[in-house]
Amino acid sequence: MSDTLNKKEVDQLLDLFNKIKLDLQDSSFPTRTNRLEAVENMKRVLKIHGYTVLSGPEICTPDEMTSEEKKRFLGNQSNRGGQ
Q1: 7-47 pLDDT, tens per residue?
Q2: Distances (CA, A) of 58 to 5, 61, 67
Q3: Does residue 1 form part of some domain?
Q4: Is residue 5 a contact partner of residue 13, using CB atoms and an 8 Å limit?
Q5: pLDDT band at 76, cuts 50/70/90?
Q6: CB 20 within 8 A of CB 38
Q7: How far apart are the C-alpha atoms of 6 and 10, rounded to whole Å?
Q8: Alpha helices in the chain (DSSP H)
Q9: Does a structural domain hold residue 16?
Q10: What per-residue confidence (pLDDT) applies to 83?
């Protein structure tokens, strides 16, 4: 992955950032649909920057991961070169 973004990536990011923005003037809590859409857009931003994004509603600690999940996770970490 290059350290610079191309025009297509910049355009995609600008669009995603506009979709992710929260209306701070609105005092109501965003709906679940709106929150999940924002999460999906945030994942797309991370992917554009070269990160591997794991999908799923579960969040776990390293102690809860299987050995296969740990290998996959640690392999993804080393492929990013310390980002």
Answers
A1: 999 999 999 998 888 766 777 877 777 888 888 999 999 99
A2: 31, 10, 17
A3: no
A4: yes
A5: low
A6: yes
A7: 6
A8: 7-20, 32-48, 67-79
A9: yes
A10: 43
How many domains does the structure of the chain reveal?
1
Give the Cα separation of 14 and 54 in Å (integer): 23
Residue with tokens 């649909």: 33
2 within a domain of the structure (yes/no): no
- Predicted local distance difference test score (pLDDT) of residue 82: 44
Q: How high is the pLDDT of residue 36?
A: 84
Angle at 64 between CA 61 and CA 37, to 5 degrees: 55
Tell which residue, 16, 24, 23, has the closest CA to residue 40: 16
Instruction: Give the Cβ contact number of residue 41 at 10 Å.
Output: 16
Q: Can you give the residue range of the structural domain that contains 28?
A: 7-79
Task: Give the pTM.
Answer: 0.58
